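REVIEWER CHECKLIST
Item 1: Sequence provided? yes
Item 2: Single chain? yes
Item 3: Sequence as submitted:
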Amino acid sequence: MYRLPAPPRGAVAVPRGAGGPALIAVAHGSRDPRSAATMAAVVADVAAARPDIPVRLAFLDLSTPSVDEVVDDLATQGHTDVIVVPLLLGNAFHARVDLPALLAEAGRRHPRLQLTQAAVLGPDPLLIAAVADRVALSCHLRPLLPTLVTPLVPAFPGALAATTNPLSDAPVGIAVAAVGSRDAAANRRTAVVSRRLAAVTGCPTEMCFATVEPSVDLAVDQLRARGAERIVVAPWFLAPGLLTDRLVAAAPEVVHADVIGAHSALVDVIWARYDTSVATELVLSA
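Item 4: Structure as written out by the authors:
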């Protein structure tokens, strides 16, 4: 049995220590081995955070194990309830079409297995804060995440802007770089990341994409026109790969922050999506 994605409702308090449905964290997949290795490290941290819950990693494409393989294995082990958390930053085709189709077919193969797809990660406040952390570390500044509270309100506004490059007095500008889509509306939705990062850091930001316009070099030019002298590219990516390499090659003269990767904020967001889905199941079965 497959259930549609649970609506995002933020973190929900679910009792810990008493076990619960298994969790499958589904990543995109890539031909670049760094991507799978990064997602394996993320999911290892997820599993370590709540060792009473079975946690597995699966991929939609290009990497193994596949979603089918992991679902079949859990069903063989006797699991009857599984929460599937898409490790996707946007609610695009993979989240809306590909993954639901895979889970629906798996539900037909295993009619006693309940599969519930959670909401995507999206521009969660914690992930925005994680990107701010990566930018701060790329500038050799202290991490900002402990100073941030939810919703996006820094404990001291303009933390990055006020703390400029320690080697000069140059103000920092941030080019937020995402994958990009042929769907202009999807790109506009992604651009919220840039606006929210500006609210957290107090720095001027510009949105750019690895596959469509505006490009990273255009974003760098726009930031310089706005007075930024030190530019940081902040990748809105979970893992490194060919596209993040493309961004570095396109703008080699600026600083490139690390991807989100195995950041504690990502672990917290994954468990929040899981908990919301479990709470939704409880409501539906009540």
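Item 5: Key structural point noted by reviewer: The CA atoms of residues 232 and 255 lie 5 Å apart.
Item 6: Recommendation: ____
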